[in-house]
């Protein structure tokens, strides 16, 4: 009987805080998971590794359509790290794979 009362009291305490934790799912993400650069194919295949200039240009074109600006942080190597900003501040931090054209949010 005591166990039943304990479970009855503990259940609302465990469920109520968890229900508020997923409220972000109602909003559309700035960078959908696993999105890709339009200059490469949908399946993450580029004919060759994009140059730094081409990849920066592709990112700027991609986010400009959404009304956002791109601030490149680390342009070297296979991955480019960038901050996506709007007039209020940073809305996302992403990495861009120059080999596959994939854009991933790391924010």
Core attributes:
elongated, 27% strand, 107 residues, 5-stranded antiparallel sheet, 2 helices, Nuclear Transport Factor 2, Chain: A, alpha+beta
Q: Mind sketching the topology for me?
A:
Blueprint: H1 2-20, E1 35-36, H2 52-64, E2 69-74, E3 79-86, E4 89-97, E5 102-105
Antiparallel strand pairs: 1-5, 2-3, 3-4, 4-5
Description:
- With 107 residues, the protein is α+β, with helices and mostly antiparallel strands.
- 30% of the residues lie in helices and 27% in strands.
- It has two helices and five strands, in the order αβαββββ.
- The chain has helices at residues 2-20, 52-64; strands at residues 35-36, 69-74, 79-86, 89-97, 102-105.
- A five-stranded antiparallel beta sheet has the order 1-5-4-3-2, with helices on one face.
- A hairpin with a 2-residue loop joins strand 3 and strand 4.
Provide a concise account of the structure shown:
By secondary structure, this protein is of the alpha+beta class. The protein is built from two helices and five strands.
From the spread of the alpha carbons, the general shape counts as: elongated
Number of strands: 5
Cα-to-Cα separation, first versus last residue: 47 Å
Report strand order across the widest sheet: 1-5-4-3-2
Q: Can you tell me the CATH class of the domain at 34-107?
A: Alpha Beta
CATH topology of the domain at 34-107: Nuclear Transport Factor 2, Chain: A
- The helix fraction, in percent, is 25-40%
Largest sheet descriptor: 5 strands, antiparallel
Total helix count?
A: 2
β-strand amount = 25-35%
Global structural class: alpha+beta
- Backbone CA Rg: 20 Å
